[in-house]
Amino acid sequence: MLPATVRDQMGLAYLFARAADTIADTDLIDREQRLRYLTQFRMQFSSSAGARSDLHAIQAALIPHQADSAERVLLQRLEDCLTLYDQFDPADQERIRWLMGVLPDGMAMDLSHFQGDSAQNLTAFQTLDELDQYTYYVAGCVGEFWTRMVCAHCPSMSDWDVTKMSAIGVRFGKGLQLTNIVKDLARDLHRGRCYVPEPLLREAGLTPVDLLNRESLPKFRPVLMRLIKMAIEHLDQGWMYTMALPRLEIRQRLACMWPILLAGETLKRVAAAPDLLDPSVNVKAPRSVVYRVMAMTTLTGGCGYVGTAYWGRLRKQIV
């Protein structure tokens, strides 16, 4: 859906982000090694030619462990991706280099903070600030990168205050990541990761281990609703960001409307789910809802009135 002027840059940045995520998630490799490979991968975006010498070592270590064929092909084609990166305008290279200097911090935070990979080694964030920092690293910075890139290439956005809108873009990304966190709560718990800060749990008389018991959901619900409200407040900023886009930027509007509205549909289901703490249950908006949202917004040309009315109804159903 993105404008042609930024499609290649955004697409390539996405592939680099997926590659970094694959490095972090290759469980068959020791945690310390994965952290080292993440550092080496960041260095691929350095202007130093010597930094590229580590790429083959990363590929040799990781490719044999990829069960997913798409991730294996991506790692195999990283040299091609970097060749395309080298052909970009220096300013675009700098924007992607900035993103790949920040985004892997979230993956490194996962590897460093959550030392285990199962419920037996369950660890939680210690403060709300940690959660906020994490959501910035893994998603908020993407909103900042996105804003810088489109403002550089879309003439209709030349009057945007890039600094101000980048900060709002950060909120947008954080809202989407918080949605993912509450949606995937049970599965993450069974992977040893509790993104819910312990102080919030203590206020409800809970510990991270208690969340492994499905019967803890009624007691946990006030904490859950607080997290959902935080996500909604961030997404409200994302909606303001979307409505600030020029009306003729229909592709950008739709590219922003869809994730916000689908996040709202997901949060509505998370808030009402009776089995949220069951890791076998996948709480998400069904395809019929996805198609409805896409059709409604597309057929109305990204109309702000229609989209805002939909978002407003969703909010009332959630909080």
TrEMBL record:
Pfam families: SQS_PSY (PF00494). InterPro entries: Isoprenoid_synthase_dom_sf, Squ/phyt_synthse, Trans_IPPS_euk-type. Keywords: Transferase. GO terms for molecular function: squalene synthase [NAD(P)H] activity. Its EC number is 2.5.1.21. The keyword RNA-binding does not apply. Signal peptide: none annotated. GO terms for biological process: farnesyl diphosphate metabolic process. The keyword RNA-binding does not apply. This is Squalene synthase.
